[in-house]
Structure formats: C-alpha cells, structure tokens
C-alpha cells in the first residue's frame, strides 16, 4: 500500500541529444510501498528515464529528487557479461555490499548474514555455493535481485528483467516481485509483460517521450481501449505481446 510523502519526484524533466528530444516534460511521483509498471514502445525513452532517476544521465530541464543510496537496480539483461565470471552465487550477492563498505574492505559477519537473508528472500539458499554460470537465466536474475537487496533499498528499479527467460521462470520472477512488494518494498518495473503484472501493480505509467497516462491500475483498465492505440497501435493489453 502507498503511504507517506513522495520519496521520488520527477518534475518537468526533458532530455535529448542535440535538438532531438528523447523525453519531454515528464513528471511523476512515487510513494513508499508503491508498485508501478512503466510501459511504452521501443525507443519511447523508458531506459533513459531510468538512467536519469539513477543519476547515470543528467536531465537538460526539470529536476529529480530522490535519495539514490536507497535505490536498488537490476539492469536490462543483467546476466550478460557476468554469467561466465568464475564467482559463486554467494559472492555475487555479497558484491552488493561494496557500495556501503568499500571494495577493498573485508565483510564482517553482519554483512554475510545479510547475504544469507537476501538469498533466502529470493529462494536461492540451496544454490549459494554454485557458480553463477551454472544457474538458469531466471535464477541468475533472482541473484541480481538479491544483490540489489544488499543495499537495503527503499525502491527497487528493474529494467525489462525477464528478457530472454522462459515462461515458467518469468512467472516465478513476477511472483517474487509480488512477495517483495507485500513485504513493503517499493518497485518500479519496466516491462512489456503488462498482462502478467497488471493484477499486482498499484499504478501504470505509459510513456512515449511524454507521458500518455499515469494513474491507478483501475483507471488504466477503464481507459486502455483509448490509450493503447495511441501508445502501441493496439487495443488490448494482450496485443502488446
């Protein structure tokens, strides 16, 4: 459930390259305990908005207010590049503490206990000693959620995390996000799988350079027949897939 004051505020933000805008006059707010799904066609500026929120890019207009130390991030296709790295699942999750303790400092028992808690949260305790490369794509993505949880985030941002994983793994992944949300974690999910998460989320954000819709799930379901043709050229959620 949403409560309290907004901990993320994006106000009239624009970003572009040269004279070509990628995002124009975007505003949104997120509250504690909120689960928002961000949808839009390819090239609509979704990943750019995420990078702006994370501070990886600097907006040209507007302002963003957020405590970035309380944000966990799972990047698009996060398993690429690290999947063949000779590290165990436990070691990969532990690397999520480096932002707090420093890369060259030893982890104490408190941090290792945090690793075990994070592994338990994502259901991977029994895989802790395995090499990351021995896990399936869906399991690897859960490892990266566990790593993100090590920073004790208030908000978890995920950029199309289920790309390239099978249907069953995808269902398990979204069930995990639902459980984390029920435990009080705020989530901002970029996804094309709207029909699979629509019953779990609080709000829907439709983006195509500018915001086409930003409101409750119930409002979106009432208005989707008018919204989706303009956004995707389709008339129902399932047609997006």
From TrEMBL:
Domain ABC transporter as annotated: residue spans: 8-234
Database matches in InterPro entries: AAA+_ATPase, ABC_transporter-like_ATP-bd, Metal_Ion_Import_ABC, P-loop_NTPase
Matching SMART domains: AAA (SM00382)
Any GO molecular function: ATP hydrolysis activity
Keyword list, A-Z: ATP-binding, Nucleotide-binding, Transport
Keyword DNA repair among record annotations: no
Family the entry assigns: Belongs to the ABC transporter superfamily.
UniProt protein name: Zinc transport system ATP-binding protein
């Amino acid at each position: 459930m949403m409560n309290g004051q907004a901990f993320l505020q994006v106000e009239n933000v624009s970003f572009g390259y040269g004279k070509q805008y990628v995002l124009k006059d975007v505003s949104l707010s997120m509250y504690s305990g909120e689960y928002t799904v961000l949808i839009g066609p390819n090239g609509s500026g979704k990943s750019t908005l995420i990078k702006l929120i994370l501070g990886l890019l600097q907006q040209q207009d507007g302002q963003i207010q957020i405590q970035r130390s309380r944000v966990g991030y799972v990047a698009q296709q996060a398993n690429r590049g690290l999947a063949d790295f000779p590290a165990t699942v436990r070691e990969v999750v532990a690397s999520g503490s480096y932002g707090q303790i420093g890369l060259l400092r030893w982890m104490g028992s408190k941090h290792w206990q945090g690793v075990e808690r994070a592994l338990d949260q994502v259901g991977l305790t029994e895989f802790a000693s395995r090499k990351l490369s021995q896990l399936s794509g869906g399991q690897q993505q859960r490892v990266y959620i566990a790593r993100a949880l090590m920073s004790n985030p208030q908000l978890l941002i995920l950029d199309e995390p289920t790309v390239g994983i099978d249907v069953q793994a995808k269902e398990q992944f979204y069930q995990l996000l639902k459980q984390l949300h029920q435990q009080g974690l705020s989530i901002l999910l970029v996804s094309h799988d709207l029909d699979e998460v629509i019953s779990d989320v609080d709000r829907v954000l439709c983006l195509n350079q500018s915001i086409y819709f930003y409101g409750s799930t119930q409002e979106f379901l009432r208005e989707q027949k008018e919204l989706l043709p303009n956004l995707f050229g389709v008339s129902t959620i399932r047609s997006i897939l």
